[in-house]
Structure formats: C-alpha cells, structure tokens
Design a protein that fits this description.
Layout lengths: L9 E3 L1 H13 L3 E9 L18 E6 L2 E5 L2 E11 L6 E10 L4 E12 L10 E8 L6 E2 L11 H11 L11 E4 L5 E5 L15 H32 L6 H10 L19 H11 L22 E5 L3 E8 L2 E8 L2 E2 L13 E2 L2 E2 L35 H9 L9 E4 L8 E3 L4 E3 L4 H7 L12 E3 L82 E5 L12 H19 L10 E4 L9 E3 L6 E16 L2 E14 L4 E6 L6 E6 L1
Parallel strand pairs: 2-9
Antiparallel strand pairs: 1-7, 2-3, 2-6, 4-5, 5-8, 6-7, 10-11, 12-13, 13-14, 14-15, 16-17, 18-22, 19-22, 20-21, 23-28, 24-27, 25-26, 25-27, 25-28
Length: 657
C-alpha cells in the first residue's frame, strides 16, 4: 500500500535504452509521440525496465510538451493534459511511447482520482514524467500543436516568445507588421514621401508649377490678341461680334430629298430601277422569253426562291448538288414532292416506287439466317450454349418446377433431382432451389453459402393443415412423431356365472384402493398403414432428359470439382523466389519510413553500404542494429522499417513480385 515510505520514479525501459543508444550511435532523431495513463488494476505498481505496456491502460493521447529541465539538461520532461470531460478512473501508472509505438519509459505516481465533469466536479489534470538520459542531442523536442490540449503556462510561454519585447506604447500613423499581424515597428511621418505618396506635388513643386503656368499664359497673349483682331476686321468691327460669330458658325447646308437636290447626275433613281427590272421580269404574271441565268456571286450559289408571308421555298446549287427545301414560319417543313398526274416519277433513270404502285419484283432480299435479319436473342442451330442458357431454355419446357418433390421407385435420382435426405448443399451449385427453400429446413450449422434439404427418409407425407383445424399448430417442413389416438378397452370379469355372462367390473377381494393390470402386448414397433418404399427426391434444377451417353449432372459435378482444384492449385503457397525477381528500390525508399508488404507473399530485403550503421524493425520487433549490411524476410502483410545515417554507396534491393 502507499505510505510515507513509498517511492515514485520514472525509468527508461529496455527498449527505450536500446533506442537511445541506437539514436546516439547513428545520429538519427528519436521522437516521443504519446503518453498513456492507467490504474494498474488497483495495485501499487513499481516501474520495470522489461515492461512493454502498462498494467491496465485507460487513456492514451499525444504529448503536450517535450523539453529539457533548465536546471539539468540530461533530464527530459514530457507532459500531457487530460481535459475535464475525460476521467472516471484512478491514476497510478504513466507510460511514454515513441513514434514507433514502443513503450520507452514508464513511471508510477501517487494514486489520484481523475473525476468526470458529469460527476459534479471537473478539473484539467496535467501529467508529467521526468527521466534521466545520457545524451539529449538526438531527442526531438517538437510536438504537433494541432492535436494537443495546451496548458495556460504553455500558451503564455508561446505568446511571450512570439510577441516582440520592449515596444513602446503609443499612437502611430504608419506601422510594420509580420505575417501573424504582430506590429514590429511604428512611425509618424511628416512628409508626403514619408507616407509613400508618389502622385502629389510637394509644397515647393506646387509653387514652381503655378509660376510656370502663369509665365506660359503671359507668353501666348500677343498671338491670341492678333487672332481676335483679324476676326474683328473680317466682320467690319461688328459691335455684336460674339453673337454674329455664334450664328455664323451654327449655319449649315440645307438638306435635299433627291439625288438632283445634291447635284448628283450619274445615279439611277428609284423610277429608273423599277422600269429596268420590269422590262426583264414581269411582276404580275406573264411569260419571259428565253432562258434566265443566275450569275454566281463571290462566295454565293445560284438560288431561286418563292416566298409568301408564311412559306419560303428554295432551289439552289451547292457543291454540284441541286437542293430543294422549304420553311414554314421559319421551321423546316416540306420534303421534296414530285407529282406528275398519270406518270411515275424517276431519278437518274430509276423509277421511284411508292405504296400505290409498288412492284413486288423489286423487294428486300430474303435472308436464310437469324443474323441476316439482325436477330441476336434467339437460339441458333448448331450453337454452343452455357449451362445457365440451357437451364433457361428448359425452365419453360419442364413440367415440374424447382422445389417439387417426386417419389422414385429406384435408389437413383433422375437428372435435375436430389434425394431429399436432409443433406447440406451449396447455394452456388443449386441457386434456384436455394432461393425456393430459403432456410426452411436449416438447423444453424450449415455454414456460409449453404442450405439444407428436407429429410424424407422413412417418413409418411401429410398435407399441411393450413387453417383447417385437423392438424393444428403445424408449420411447413416440421417433423411429427408417430402417435396412437386416445381410446379405452373393456376388461372382462374373471368370475363368471352361467352362460351368457358379460364383462363387468373387477373385484379386489373387498379391499379398497386402485387396481391396475397391463393387457397383453401385440403389434410392432410403430403404427403404420400398408405402404411401398420409395425414394423421395426434390427438383433441384431444370435439366434436359439425357438421351445419350453423357450424364449432364455428373459432368456438371466434375466441372465444379475441376474448378475447385484449379482454384486450390492457384492459391497454393509459393516458395520465396518463385515468380519473384530482384528489384532495386534505392531511389524510392527513405530512411526511417514504415513500409507494408502488400504483395500477398513474403519478400526478401537486403540493404548494404560501405560506411555507416543500419537499424531494422519488422512488425515492431527490433531485428538488428549493425554496420554495413542487413538482410531479412518480411512476411506478407507485415510492416518494416530500415533506419540509417549518412551512408556511403547505399544499395537497397528487394526480392518481390
């Protein structure tokens, strides 16, 4: 029990000591990842270097802080924060785990109960472990702040480190900040340049610009005055000079309504054009003598159009093709129709037949095969079909559905039937029967992918009561033992007097009490009617009746057997090197990275170099810590990690698929 003589301490485990020595020797980093706490099942634990786990761990979480003791640089301090909503257990033991998940340090502590917030009291519990190491150079003192719960002291220290010190308080019109928004410096500029403004005049620049503009205005005055004098002379020194100039400049030429009004004499008027066109093509009917030629314009094709407010009909030539098409209200409308009364239309010497004059001599070629008519879902003569396709064909021809039970006078089941013997069958082999029976006759030990047949051996069949009330309480497929209908017998009196005596009650010599006496036993071992022994079979699949010498059912069973043996052969264990080859993976492997063997088979790994040390871990087990060379086997599905520091002439090869 815990008392004033109890000792509390922390120590590296054997695995932790080995890893520290390896990290120091190879110069590789050693990272602490998680801390765990436990209640030791109520005992008073004493840390043991051989421990690989806590006695009874109840929480594990990332470390909150890893640092060295300012007073002693060989003391490592690790810390974890347990929030108020976690607890309900005692704290008696503490464990530290590295990035590989190994327990590298263990400690005990005075028993402390960590309550839950729901219990009415809650607190944030801080767990620290201090332990001594010989060298802290390779121990990583960084943590991932995104996955831990920080203490207030940790936050205060972090803010004190991040915020600049010795900055004077005050109001500044120009400041410099860093990427976190922290003000680094502040100033109060007194000039335009101090604020970074480049598109404004300073006071001296403004004065100079004004002086320059005034000088330019004075310099241009004589020329402006000369121009005004010339205008005034041209207007006769009109006293209303400004008004006269405005009116004169606003005047413009009168607008004409004809070509002649603008003085144009070589243009065709509207009347001229109408007369010229009317002379070529009558606008209101009539006959035009001679051919009409439509010239092919640049990029256009000859085109003739007939138009009404709703209908447009076109004939044109494009790419040596004569086209006729029409639109009705802007939509493609009528196809080409040639109607010559009493005549048959023809194109390039070929008669265009239609429903009114179809010539039976010109008809579609008659095909002699299903494929010739494009039929793909029919059975063809001489074709080869799978068992499923044959079963589908015979399902419609069979007189008995799957699941029907039939008695046979011989001990051999007909094709398509199985003896109803209560045996377990494969759902994959007899899917239709399995779907029909379901689990009606299952006992619970059939295994995955199997179902059970009814057992009719030695049984009489009886119709299901189905609500009639004769055989009450029976469910389909249930068994019923033999039975005798309840009845009574008359027992004759041993003492008879005279002829014609009848049976009467037995006398027991005037004594009171019950009297029992068995009758003589007659009959067999069961109650049964006359019967004929048959083998009841159940329809398992729709199979054709075998008319030849090939037993289809037996052949199907053999094929299933061959498939199973082929699968077993493919899945047989293969030796190392069988179907594998050496592969150089130096370029794609990284020191200290955990890899997984996903090939489904064992692989052989070999790492070598001329100088340096190597450290190998497979499935969390340390295999070797040596120099120059390491060779090992990785089982299928196992993880492996190779760690080395600054090797020379590194070669990493693997025998794998």
């Amino acid at each position: 029990m815990i008392d004033s003589n109890s000792q509390f301490f922390a120590t590296l485990t054997s695995v932790g000591e080995a890893k520290q020595a390896n990290a120091t020797a190879l110069g590789i980093p050693w990272t602490f990842k998680e801390m765990a706490v436990g209640d030791a099942n109520g005992s008073d634990p004493v840390p043991n270097k051989t421990q690989t786990k806590l006695i009874n761990e109840w929480r594990r979480a990332p470390v909150n802080q890893v640092r060295t003791d300012p007073a002693n640089p060989n003391v490592i301090i690790t810390e974890q924060v347990i929030p108020p909503d976690v607890g309900g257990h005692w704290l008696r033991e503490i464990g530290l785990f590295d990035a590989d998940g190994d327990l590298v340090a263990v400690a005990n502590c005075a028993p402390t109960f960590k309550p839950l917030l729901a219990q009415g009291t809650g607190k944030t519990q801080i767990i620290r472990m201090n332990f001594i190491v010989s060298n802290t150079a390779q121990i990583v003192l960084k943590i991932d702040p995104s996955v831990v719960l920080a203490t207030r002291q940790y936050v205060d220290d972090s803010l004190a480190t991040a915020l600049p010190a010795n900055k004077a308080a005050g109001t500044y019109r120009q400041v410099t900040i860093d990427k976190r928004g922290v003000v680094l410096t502040g100033t109060n500029p007194t000039t335009v340049a101090g604020y970074g403004i480049t598109d404004a005049f300073t006071k001296p620049e403004t004065t100079a610009a004004i002086e320059q503009a005034v000088a330019a205005l004075v310099a241009s005055a004589p020329g402006a005055l000369d121009t005004l004098k010339e205008l005034a002379d041209a207007l006769g020194n009109d006293p209303n000079f400004a008004t006269t100039m405005t009116k004169t400049l606003a005047a413009k030429a009168n607008k004409a309504t004809t070509l002649g009004g603008y003085g144009i004499v070589d243009g065709a008027t509207k009347s001229d054009l109408n007369s010229a066109v009317s002379g070529l093509l009558p606008k209101a009917g009539g006959i035009v003598s001679g051919p009409i030629y439509l010239a092919n314009g640049t990029g256009d094709s000859p085109e003739i159009a007939w138009k009404t407010p709703e209908l447009e009909v076109y004939a044109d030539v494009i790419n040596r093709t004569l086209r006729f098409f029409s639109y009705f209200n802007g939509q493609t409308e009528f196809p080409l129709v040639i109607d010559v009364p009493g005549k048959s239309a023809s194109f390039f010497g070929n008669t265009a037949w239609h429903s009114g004059n179809f010539n039976p001599q010109e008809k579609a070629n008659k095909s002699t095969t299903l494929a010739g008519y494009g039929i793909t879902d029919a059975y063809s003569k001489g074709g080869t079909y799978s068992r499923d396709e044959v079963n589908e064909l015979f399902e419609g021809l069979s007189a008995l559905p799957v699941g029907a039970m039939v008695p046979f006078p011989k001990g051999t089941a007909a094709p398509g039937f199985l003896e109803a013997d209560g045996s377990v069958q494969s759902i994959a082999t007899f899917p239709d029967l399995a779907a029909y029976l379901g689990d009606t006759f299952n006992k619970g030990d059939e295994g995955v992918g199997s179902f059970r047949l009814p057992d009719s051996r030695g049984e009489f069949f009886r119709g299901w009561d189905h609500g009639r009330g004769v055989d009450v309480g029976r469910a389909l497929g249930t068994y019923q033992a033999d039975d005798f209908k309840s009845h009574t017998h008359l027992i004759g009196n041993q003492n008879t007097y005279g002829s014609g005596s009848s049976a009467g009650p037995l006398h027991n010599g005037g004594k009171s009490g019950d009297l029992s006496q068995p009758t003589g036993a007659v009959g067999g071992v069961e109650t049964r009617p006359r019967n004929l022994a048959v083998m009841w079979c159940i329809k398992a699949w729709n199979a054709p009746v075998n008319q030849g010498t090939i037993d289809i059912a037996a052949l199907a069973a053999q094929v299933v057997g061959f498939s199973a043996r082929a699968t077993a052969l493919e899945e047989r264990p293969r030796g190392l090197g069988d179907g594998q080859a050496w592969q150089s993976v130096t370029a794609v492997r990284v020191s200290g990275t955990v890899y997984t063997n996903t090939t489904g088979r064992p692989i052989f790994v070999q790492v070598s170099f001329t100088t340096g040390g190597v450290y190998v871990v497979v499935d969390g087990v340390n295999l070797t810590a040596s120099a120059y060379h390491a060779a090992f086997i990785v089982p299928a599905g196992s993880t492996y990690k190779v760690t080395y520091g600054s090797p020379t002439n590194l070669t990493w090869v693997e025998l794998r698929t």
